[in-house]
Design a protein that fits this description.
globular; alpha+beta; 12 helices; about 25% strand; about 400 residues; six-stranded mixed beta sheet; single chain
């Protein structure tokens, strides 16, 4: 295999790029059985049998890896402890390490580098894992991502964006800088010496969840709009909100980064009800989602920005590297001090079966990464009668090790 990293290039040098999912199943399974199912599931997904290669030109590719380093182990760490530990231990994607699995007292936890896929991809991996645990025969799953060639035609760039690309790419080529994995190691050390991860979990069980759904329905809005209104209620400024959107155009169930997103700005109006604010937010969301050009704009633009300049934006954010060009572009694109107030990914009701023979998934929890252009990132997923809303943020800590 050999696939060029294009629209997902922003994930390559981001120092905070690990997706986490935890699942609780109906019985305690020995670690050896879980490890066997994990290894089998990894062997079936093409992307988990690849590694990342950066060429001297700065182009990066997924290429075949004969001995990937994906691992499964037991640990006494809590979910928060695992996240803090594993974010600081860089995934060796150049050696084929995209996913780590753990058996813990809290359940089974998977942590995946975003280049292994998006949130839905990790759900589909869990489905394969559970089927393997149940002894089912599973077929191989090809890698899929969003490339410049397969993005919808409506996402073509405007003349202004084409002009910006020519200016910025031209300036960057004069700087002639390409980064490698040693730079990535140094950036991780620099970033994580000053940050700790903080995870807050709000759990909605059946009665509370049904009440929340009923309130949103009575207001005539989606649950996502209703939740966003609640998040903004105590803010006194116009919030910049990012929402991840599934970019799959053919309903494939492959692993790979196939997410896109929209952004909107909204100031909570305290003179009207929560429900009215939710309706206003929903109108904004619907308008943005209906604009196919804007829906794929960021992927088109970032996929055509010089690859090493995209890397430099993340390295600017990490505090490892700075230049006149990358500093200007980072500020303009939201990699500097001005980042999204809220970034939300709602996987809604998990798009996988919950029962696999005698095994049943009773609860899922989703922790998105705090990517370089975000501040507070919220992951939402519902499984069975439980919805978990998880907010992930980074705390500045100059003494963190």
């Amino acid at each position: 295999m050999r696939y060029r990293i294009e629209t997902e290039r922003t994930d390559l040098f981001d120092p905070s790029i690990v997706i986490t999912m935890a699942l609780r199943i109906n019985e305690d399974v020995p670690a050896d059985a879980l490890r066997y199912a994990f290894d089998r599931a990894c062997s079936l997904h093409e992307v988990l049998n690849s590694r990342v290669e950066i060429e001297p030109s700065g182009e990066a590719y997924y290429v075949t890896c004969d001995n990937p380093r994906n691992t499964f182990s037991e640990t006494e760490l809590t979910l928060s402890g695992l996240i803090n530990d594993n974010e600081k231990r860089r995934f060796r994607i150049e050696e084929g390490e995209f996913i780590r699995g753990f058996k813990t007292h809290e359940g089974i936890i998977f942590m995946m580098h975003h280049l292994g896929g998006d949130g839905k991809s990790l759900l589909y991996f869990i489905e394969t894992f559970m089927r393997c645990l149940n002894g089912e025969k599973c077929g191989r799953v090809p890698f899929r991502n969003l490339t410049l060639d397969n993005l919808p035609e409506e996402g073509r760039l405007s003349h202004m964006h084409e002009w910006l690309l020519r200016i910025w790419n031209g300036r960057w080529k004069r700087e002639k800088r390409v980064f490698g994995f040693s730079d990535m190691d140094a950036a991780y050390r620099e970033f994580w010496q000053r940050h700790d991860s903080v995870v807050d979990i709000k759990r909605y069980e059946k009665t509370e969840l049904e009440s929340l759904i009923s309130e949103a329905k009575n207001a005539g809005v989606t649950l996502t709009s209703y939740l966003i209104a609640g998040m903004l209620r105590d803010k006194d400024h116009k919030a910049d909100i990012g929402l991840a959107v599934d970019g799959r155009t053919d309903d494939n169930r492959s692993m790979g980064n196939q997410a896109t997103g929209i952004s909107l700005q909204y100031r909570y109006n305290k003179k009207i009800s929560l429900e009215d604010n939710a309706r206003n937010i929903q109108r904004l969301m619907k308008r943005k989602l209906a604009d196919r050009k804007r829906l794929y704009l960021v992927l088109q633009f970032m996929g055509r920005l010089d690859p090493a300049l995209v890397d430099a934006l993340n390295l600017e954010h990490a505090g490892y590297f700075s230049s006149r060009t990358s500093g200007t572009v980072a500020g303009y694109l939201g990699y500097g001090s001005k980042v999204k107030d809220l970034s939300i990914t709602n996987l809604t009701r998990a798009d996988i079966p919950l029962e696999y023979g005698r095994f049943k998934i009773e609860e899922l929890l989703f922790v998105p990464p705090v990517v370089s252009y975000a501040r507070n990132v919220t992951g939402i997923v519902t499984a069975g009668s439980v919805m978990n809303v998880v907010t992930h943020r980074l705390a500045y800590n100059p003494t963190a090790k």
